[in-house]
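step 3/5: co-fold with pyridoxal-5'-phosphate
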Amino acid sequence: MSQHDSLSGLPGRHFLFVPGPTNIPERVMRAMDRPMEDHRSSAFPALTHSLLEDLQKIFHTVDGRPFIFPATGSGGWEAALVNTLSPGDRLLAVRNGQFSTLFINCAERQGMVVDVIDVEWGDGVPPKQIEQALMADTAHEIKGVLVVHNETATGVTSDIPAVRQAMDAAGHPALLYVDGVSSIGSLDFRMDAWGVDLAITGSQKGLMLPAGLGIICVSQKAMAKVETAGCNRCFFDLRDMSKANMGGYFPYTPALSLLFGLREALDMLLEEGMEHVVTRHHRLAEGVRSAVDAWGLKVCARKPKWNSDTVTAVMVPEGVNGAEIIDLAFRRHNLALGAGLTRMAGKLFRIGHLGDLNDLMVLGALAGVEMAMADAGAKVEFGKGVGAATAYYQQNPAATR
Ligand SMILES: *Cc1c(COP(=O)(O)O)cnc(C)c1O
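step 4/5: write tokens
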């Protein structure tokens, strides 16, 4: 380790612009910095119940039941699948990036048979194709539809209400599984209104915490499958979790520091108001996109309607290696950018703009991107992107309170 705060060895604040983990607000850090306690004390249920109640507000659900596991988003996938399905069950899934690929992989490793709709990386989920596939399944063999709300690998946000409409138009009873790991707590997400049965997230993105919690929310319709689901499970068994949670406890030792942090993070989000959280992310993202335009570069999302307000994937100019931009940004400018994953390696870099951020932090990151692009051999007119974003933020002020 170096004498400085970040692994880069450079002084000053580290500019964390990967799309998770995100910046942890000082308030949340202070809330986590306290001694351990007995998680079986008589005072503990008040904390558990308050977290589960307030999580419902983040998911926008009244009947859906949130569950908190010591895990990550990937553990959330597994928890959602094994508690509601049996090996051999058929699923329908859309693959449009690395996270949807991994979600499908998780289901396959649990013994499910997945019909995959492949689309271009950079495309959103195609509701029409989902509708057609479900219409063709007259025997209702398909037990679930798997989609990623915000494909973090490509910076693509899909239209989940349209997926629900497609399922209803087909009159199909399959459960709707939505990975909301990089959307819930940042983008508009409405579990009840959109008819989502299993919503999945993790702690280190919109919830502004360290990694370590896998959080899922389960509709009543999905809860009804838990008893009969045939998958083996122990750690992720919702029957144990549900029983313990009713009393305000956990079936095993909870990640207590993270729960204290979650309490504070939920307070912050709810104090701001989820609608304001959503508009804040949109505004920050618009500034980033205006910079990308000014650089003359393209984003990976193939239509503007799919542009993500939590992460922008920037296609690098011809002859420049995206991985080099990222490495130089880190080593020279103390700026962490997201890499291009698997088939996108080297072709793009990602700017995460979710969680605890403001205009000036984003402008600093954009200045770092300009320098790192130049470091890596790209032609850059300094200030072009930063100037465009500055103008956008100045001309579209955030609502003050
Ligand atoms: C980060 C992420 C995941 C994986 O979460 P982990 O916490 O790393 O297990 C899954 N899906 C999406 C869309 C993500 O952005």
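step 5/5: annotate
The chain has a mean pLDDT of 97.
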